[in-house]
Specification:
Order of helices and strands: EHEEEEHE
Number of strands: 6
Number of domains: 1
Structural class: alpha+beta
Distance between the termini: 23 Å
CATH topology: Alpha-Beta Plaits
Helix content: 10-25%
Largest sheet: 4 strands, antiparallel
CATH class: Alpha Beta
Strand order of the largest sheet: 2-5-1-6
Length: about 120
């Protein structure tokens, strides 16, 4: 199993969510986050100065079976890409185990709904 964390633009969240559902990723969590980039610039809009050094993004957290890593990364990459600086990052970590709180089952079978 692998844990995939992706940091994406807020404006691309709906497209990434649809791409993950199309790739049969049944569940993931997300959170609004802020980061600090290397650009230090201020923008003026209607006479008000805005500091753009804080970048609002969404962080996705997904645990998948090893066979689903590539299609998950492909779904996120293709849906989140604009081709401009600031598209985001994807990180992949090993996940040692998964445990279903309800059933007590261990392993990667806890990551998907078994079809009967």
């Amino acid at each position: 199993m692998k844990k995939i964390e992706a940091i994406i633009r807020k404006s691309k969240f709906d497209e990434v969510k649809e791409a993950l559902h199309t790739a049969d990723i049944e569940w993931f969590s997300y959170a609004d986050i802020r980061g600090v980039g290397t650009d230090r610039e201020e923008r003026i809009y209607r006479g008000i100065v805005y500091d753009t050094s804080f970048i609002e993004r969404i962080q996705l957290s997904i645990v998948v079976r090893d066979i689903n890593v590539e299609k998950t990364v492909d779904a996120i990459s293709s849906a989140a890409r604009t081709g401009e600086v600031g598209d985001g990052r994807i990180f992949i970590y090993p996940a040692e185990d998964a445990i279903s709180i309800r059933t007590g089952k261990h392993g990667d079978t806890t990551l998907y709904t078994e079809k009967k």
